Amino acid sequence: MSEDRMGRLDGKIALVTGGARGIGQAVARAYAREGAKVVIADLNGEGARVAAAELGAEAMGLAVDVAQSGSVAAMIAAIIEAHGRIDILMNNAGIGANTPFLETTLEDWNRIVGVNLTGAFLVAQGVAREMVRTGEGGKIVNIASLSGQRGANGRAAYGASKAGLELLTKVMAVELAEHGINVNNIAPGAIETDIARIMHDRATRAAYGRLIPMVRYGTPEEIADAAVFLCSDEARYIHGHTLNVDGGFREAGLMFTRDAPA
Ligand SMILES: NC(=O)c1ccc[n+]([C@@H]2O[C@H](COP(=O)([O-])OP(=O)(O)OC[C@H]3O[C@@H](n4cnc5c(N)ncnc54)[C@H](O)[C@@H]3O)[C@@H](O)[C@H]2O)c1
């Protein structure tokens, strides 16, 4: 960061879960570009350290399993030891699957809900408690999904976990406002990452091609730009909101190529 240009997140301590790759990594890069000291925490601890090293000496990489309360507590303790506080949480770690409702096993359900909903809850609660303790407030952005807003093939556990997270965000926004903690969601549409490569078969991609007004997948950097905005001072009165970053997918209805009148 050159001295004549202030970053929008200058000096903030920012935690990005699931930041070793994909959307989280793009967010970590954007936060660092805006002047934040970034902590990347991921199930892939080595990947987290490599991604952090790319951001420079002030960034830190940690191993965490967000679905395990002891692992989350150890992650938060390590950040507090290093920095004394956490100003920003990008609650991004998540897993997906494309499994029909009738074939979804209890194990599938528990694994996905355990990471995407319970994991997000554990991290958000632990971080929010630190924000309350320091009395300095903060910003929390949860990563929900368009799949938590609309019915879609194969998204029983995944969609339910993300719908739950969207509601959890509203409760957090109501309860944490008095502590100066700003809470919002980003709901990505179809973003080209490894999770999309696992979840999106050819039929899924063809369907998105018909259903997204902007007729393309989004990029991790497009989510990162929204994440910087929501964590900047410019977004200070946006609270409990879900910002869809989806090329217009949620809002689209009837779409067709104009033809001669019948
Ligand atoms: N890519 C999309 O189209 C899309 C759409 C909507 C929402 N999302 C959401 O965005 C977030 C990021 O997705 P992505 O596309 O970058 O996926 P990705 O698979 O590329 O990255 C996810 C990261 O989370 C980490 N992770 C997984 N389980 C973890 C755990 N238990 N503890 C800690 N880290 C864990 C992985 O190691 C990985 O680095 C997820 O919450 C996902 O549900 C993605």
From TrEMBL:
<dbReference type="InterPro" id="IPR036291">
    <property type="entry name" value="NAD(P)-bd_dom_sf"/>
</dbReference>
<dbReference type="InterPro" id="IPR002347">
    <property type="entry name" value="SDR_fam"/>
</dbReference>
<dbReference type="Pfam" id="PF13561">
    <property type="entry name" value="adh_short_C2"/>
</dbReference>
<protein>
    <submittedName>
        <fullName>3-oxoacyl-[acyl-carrier protein] reductase</fullName>
        <ecNumber>1.1.1.100</ecNumber>
    </submittedName>
</protein>
<dbReference type="InterPro" id="IPR020904">
    <property type="entry name" value="Sc_DH/Rdtase_CS"/>
</dbReference>
<keyword id="KW-0560">Oxidoreductase</keyword>
<dbReference type="GO" id="GO:0004316">
    <property type="term" value="F:3-oxoacyl-[acyl-carrier-protein] reductase (NADPH) activity"/>
</dbReference>
<feature type="domain" description="Ketoreductase">
    <location>
        <begin position="12"/>
        <end position="189"/>
    </location>
</feature>
<dbReference type="InterPro" id="IPR057326">
    <property type="entry name" value="KR_dom"/>
</dbReference>
<comment type="similarity">
    <text>Belongs to the short-chain dehydrogenases/reductases (SDR) family.</text>
</comment>
